[in-house]
Design a protein that fits this description.
This protein has 237 residues and is an alpha/beta fold. The protein is built from seven helices and ten strands. It has two domains: 2-99 and 205-236, Rossmann fold (3-Layer(aba) Sandwich), CATH 3.40.50.720; 101-200, Dihydrodipicolinate Reductase, domain 2 (2-Layer Sandwich), CATH 3.30.360.10. The strands form two sheets. A six-stranded parallel beta sheet has the order 2-1-3-4-5-10, with helices on both faces. Strands 7-6-8-9 form a four-stranded mixed beta sheet, with helices on one face. A hairpin with a 4-residue loop joins strand 8 and strand 9. The two termini are 21 Å apart. Bound molecules: 1,4-dihydronicotinamide adenine dinucleotide (NAI) and the ligand O=C(O)C1=N[C@H](C(=O)O)C[C@H](O)C1.
Length: 237
């Protein structure tokens, strides 16, 4: 496939390497205004840019008939507007707060655990995320997804509000340490014991591989998809 990279920083460069290893070609690299670039040669765009640019980057691609894989975090207030434009233009889109296949297994574990903890009133739950000091957004997109899953699946917590102080909060602790690629921990704690699930990324390669696999999945499709759709197709094989 011919790929446009929207953002050519830590992730863009890692994606370039993995995409080329899998036989793809990078035809455009964008680090500024997307309107100054010719997207006509691209079969798909992979967006790992910055929160302020993501919506314009993604929707410009849809308007140019280029499907988009987006991993940029911190822009989701405009997510529904983006999916509306995708549908209107008959294009294809997949967004994930985390493209790592391991994290997507971790998401399933988190859902399952949240369901099992339902009704166990003695436990409080909290999330910790640790990332490198260059990260622009906090809490991480992955931590927000984990919290949303817990709130969705656990009626005891349904009245709890994300990031809101008070007795019923679901705290997300965001830590920034040197070069950490991304570590997420969900902890349920009581006076008797604690239960913890944790995912530790050892590099950015897992995120990049998942994004390239998602781009391969989008080829020839129209519609709005998630990593669940990608994994379902992978496991079918
Ligand atoms: N969903 C996932 O699996 C993952 C998501 N991320 C997210 O990806 C994003 C990028 O992360 P990094 O590569 O670490 O950041 P980075 O800061 O290394 O790279 C961002 C790039 O965007 C470029 N940029 C600035 N303005 C732009 C514009 N208007 N259009 C296109 N590009 C522009 C910058 O020049 C830079 O090359 C962040 O939002 C991060 O949270 C990061 C890792 C995994
Ligand atoms: O900015 C990063 O680096 C990462 N961002 C994503 C997030 O916000 O969850 C995913 C990953 O943890 C790395």
């Amino acid at each position: 496939m011919k790929i446009a990279l929207l953002g050519y920083g830590r992730m863009g460069k890692t994606i370039e390497k993995i995409a080329m290893d899998r036989g793809h070609e990078i035809v455009v690299k964008i680090t500024g205004d997307i309107e100054e670039h010719d997207l006509s040669k691209a079969d798909v765009a992979i967006d790992f840019s910055i929160p302020d640019a993501a919506f314009k980057n993604i929707t410009t691609c849809f308007k140019n008939n280029v499907p988009v894989v987006s991993g940029t975090t911190g822009w989701l207030d405009d997510f529904n507007k983006a999916t509306d434009i995708c549908k209107e233009k008959n294009s294809a889109f997949i967004y994930a707060s985390n493209f790592s296949l391991g994290v997507n297994v971790f998401f399933e574990l988190n859902r399952k655990l949240a369901g099992m903890m339902q009704g166990l009133e003695d436990y409080s739950v909290e999330i910790e995320e640790i990332h490198h000091t260059k990260k622009l957004d906090a809490p991480s997109g992955t931590a927000i997804t984990l919290a949303e899953q817990i709130l969705e699946d656990n009626s005891r917590l349904n009245s709890w509000k994300l990031e809101e102080a008070g007795e019923n909060e679901l705290p997300i602790h965001a830590k920034r340490i040197e070069d950490v690629p991304g570590t997420h921990t969900v902890t349920y704690d009581s006076t008797i014991d604690s239960i913890e699930i944790k995912h530790t990324a050892k590099s950015r390669e897992g995120f990049a591989l998942g994004a390239v696999v998602a781009a391969e999945f989008l080829n020839g499709k129209t519609g709005v998809f998630t990593m669940k759709d990608v994994l379902a197709q992978l496991f079918e094989k």
